[in-house]
Amino acid sequence: MSEACAVALIGAGYTAKEHAKAFAAVPGVRLAGIFSRTRARAVALAAERGIPEICGSVDELYEKTKAALVVVTVNETSMLEIGLACFRHPWTVLFEKPAGLDLKESLALQAAAAKAGRRALVAHNRAFYSATTTAAAELAATEGPRFVRVQDQQNMDRVLAAGVPKPIADNWMYANSLHLIDYFRLFARGKAVRVERLSKYDPARPEFVLARVEYDSGDQGLYEAVWRAPGPWSCAVAAGAKRWEMRPLEQLTRQELGSPAAAVEIHSRDKDFKPGFLAQAEAAVAAALGRPSASTTLDQSVETMRLIAAIYDPS
């Protein structure tokens, strides 16, 4: 990928730094400018990465850089406001997940992007883990229905103790469980036609959440979450006489019926960069340049947000 692509950043925290590192490694990319409401952080990241323009607004960022792609890494409570501002300009927008505080805000961004005719992507970096892409490729060559099991764990006491703002904590299933629930989109085929909540989410005292998901393809999913006890983040898929498991999510084992599980080597890019970020950056640049891309679109992210709402609606 050698065609020039100017990339701008909005936000200058830890995630912005990891995006900057990944995009700087993509051939043809030029980090052109940055805007953050915390200017000192923007100045520091600009100095670290040689970013020439430090701007005071979204509009100034576009006018000074004419970037083809902007990466938005702001707090969830600011995502809708910043996203709407970004859609005033003809760049491709890559939102860090979640794209909005909840489903309602994601739908508002989706509608605004469609109205403005803008290309909007969401940084579901786990879709780009080499563990994920390897399992997906092998699944594509395997016949038969699939059973996808996702195990989630959240700790609200820890979230609140860390000072997470209450609106984000109240919507933590969108902010964090999204990482796990998106695996249903990645591995189950077709449309989710039924979500059976086997245990309901109690926002006043979250405990265990269990849901079964049926797809029109014949695939089935099982979601398990513990909110006040230890547990793993993991995803396992069974199809045919084979099974793939990611536990932890960055790693992959493959197992055939009657044989022990064997580890699959992960790609070096998931060791040299925050896992998934380099491949994700390459895909986002391809999308911004109008090339075929495996980037997660805002529409696809909204699909996962809808599933989260179906699982976690306390009514």
Structurally, the number of domains stands at 2
Number of helices: 12
Basic shape? globular
| Biggest sheet strand line-up | 8-9-10-7-11-12-13-14
Largest sheet: 8 strands, mixed
- Share in helix: 25-40%
CATH class of the largest domain: Alpha Beta
Distance separating the two termini: 49 Å
Q: What integer is the average pLDDT? A: 96
Structure class? alpha/beta
H/E order of the elements?
A: EHEHEHEHEHEHEHHHEEEEEEEHHH
**What is the strand content?**
25-35%
Evaluate the radius of gyration. 20 Å
Model description:
This protein has 315 residues and is an alpha/beta fold. The chain folds into two domains: 121 residues, NAD(P)-binding Rossmann-like Domain (Rossmann fold, 3-Layer(aba) Sandwich), CATH 3.40.50; 136 residues, Dihydrodipicolinate Reductase, domain 2 (2-Layer Sandwich). Helices cover 39% and strands 25% of the residues. The protein is built from twelve helices and 14 strands. The strands form two sheets. Strands 8-9-10-7-11-12-13-14 form an eight-stranded mixed β-sheet, with helices on one face. A six-stranded parallel β-sheet has the order 3-2-1-4-5-6, with helices on both faces. Helix 1 crosses helix 11. The longest helix has 16 residues. It is globular, with a radius of gyration of 20 Å. The termini are far apart. The model has no long low-confidence stretch (mean pLDDT 96).
